[in-house]
Design a protein that fits this description.
By secondary structure, the chain is an alpha+beta fold. The protein contains 3 helices and 10 strands. A 5-stranded mixed barrel has the order 1-2-3-10-4. A two-stranded antiparallel ribbon has the order 5-8. It has a two-stranded antiparallel ribbon with strand order 6-7.
Amino acid sequence: MKKILFFVFIIFAVNLFNQITWAQKSPKPDRIKVEGSIVAVDALAPLFNITFAIQQGFYIFRIEKLKKGNEKSLYLKVKYLYYPGPSPLLSDLGEGGKNKWMLKLERDRDCDSDLEEMSYYRSFIVEKTDEKTLEKLVEKRASGSDLSGDGVKEGPKVIRLKDTGGLAGVPKGEKLPCYVLKTEGIKFLGEK
């Protein structure tokens, strides 16, 4: 019985040690608090949202005042995560970016992108639908390779970004840092 208790204690101690060291090594996310306005919105993102799941929208936000944190860029890509229903930020879309907001944001380095990547949705036309071609497409998609070629041609580009005022000021060719916004991180500050 003592051997079993000792063995259980060792397993518990190793597990606890691993959790503590993992928590110490994992970096804390970069958080910022900013004031500013929306200069563009991804008009296609709402079309891909599923009714009862967490929804997401993408915006380009212009920083007028950095209240907390560290960010050098004047423009941010904001990935807004929210549950279905009324949302304060979504109501601003019809206002043409006239409203001023304070946002609490958390950095997401995986979704950084430049204006060109955000401006258009690339579509593809599959000319052959045999099993081999479809398998190649799945492999290419999984590896991040370009999908064109091998029975697939690029289709028309669909405009994604709707300019709500000020999109012309966004630097072209520069990656915009991406931040995640949740509904509790939004505060309306009034009209500009």
